[in-house]
């Protein structure tokens, strides 16, 4: 009986330590997304700590917004990259991870084919204001889109 009692006490101590560590982790949780902020907000008892979390979260977002306003070329470059990627089409691999009923992880990979996006090509060509030979392509694409709309 002594061995069972000692094992039960040890198990209880380990579980209490794990619970305390989880609670401390929740209080120290850095809110990087709105969901993590919401979870941390609900798990924090002190109103002052909750207000501080909200203030820190909003300050980080304001700093990021100010940085983007100071560097509009970064936004333009990222937008252009996304338009080029959409315009080219191609294929991409989609990976889905799941857990079956036995608790084993499995990954499912799907290769998707994406057709070139004519709207992205049109928007990309319209965003370039410098006269280039490709701008003749702009009228061809516009005519093709108008023909698609009529059908």
Q: How would you describe what is shown here?
A:
The protein is 68% helix and 13% strand. The chain is α+β, with helices and mostly antiparallel strands and 151 residues long. The model has no long low-confidence stretch (mean pLDDT 77). The protein has a two-stranded antiparallel sheet with strand order 1-2. Among the domains are: 29-70; 88-146, no CATH class.
Shape: elongated
Strand order of the largest sheet: 1-2
Q: Note the total helix count.
A: 6
Helical proportion? 55-70%
What are the key terms here?
single chain; 151 residues; alpha+beta; two-stranded antiparallel sheet
Topology:
Layout (H helix, E strand, L loop, with lengths): L1 H26 L6 H10 L3 H24 L1 H17 L1 E10 L5 E10 L3 H10 L7 H16 L1
Antiparallel strand pairs: 1-2
Helix pairs in contact: 4-5, 5-6
Describe the structure concisely.
With 151 residues, the protein is of the alpha+beta class. The chain has 6 helices and 2 strands.
């Amino acid at each position: 009986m002594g061995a069972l009692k000692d094992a039960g006490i040890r198990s209880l101590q380990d579980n209490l330590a794990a619970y305390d560590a989880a609670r401390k982790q929740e209080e120290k949780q850095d809110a990087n997304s709105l969901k993590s902020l919401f979870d941390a907000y609900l798990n924090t008892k002190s109103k002052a700590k909750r207000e501080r979390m909200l203030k820190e979260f909003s300050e980080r977002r304001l700093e990021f917004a100010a940085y983007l306003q100071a560097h509009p070329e970064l936004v333009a470059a990222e937008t252009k990259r996304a338009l080029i990627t959409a315009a080219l089409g191609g294929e991409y691999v989609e990976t889905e991870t799941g857990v079956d009923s036995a608790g084993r992880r499995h990954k499912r990979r799907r290769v998707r084919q994406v057709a070139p996006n004519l709207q992205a090509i049109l928007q990309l060509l319209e965003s370039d204001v410098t006269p280039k030979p490709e701008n003749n392509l702009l009228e061809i694409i516009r005519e093709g889109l108008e023909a698609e709309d009529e059908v």
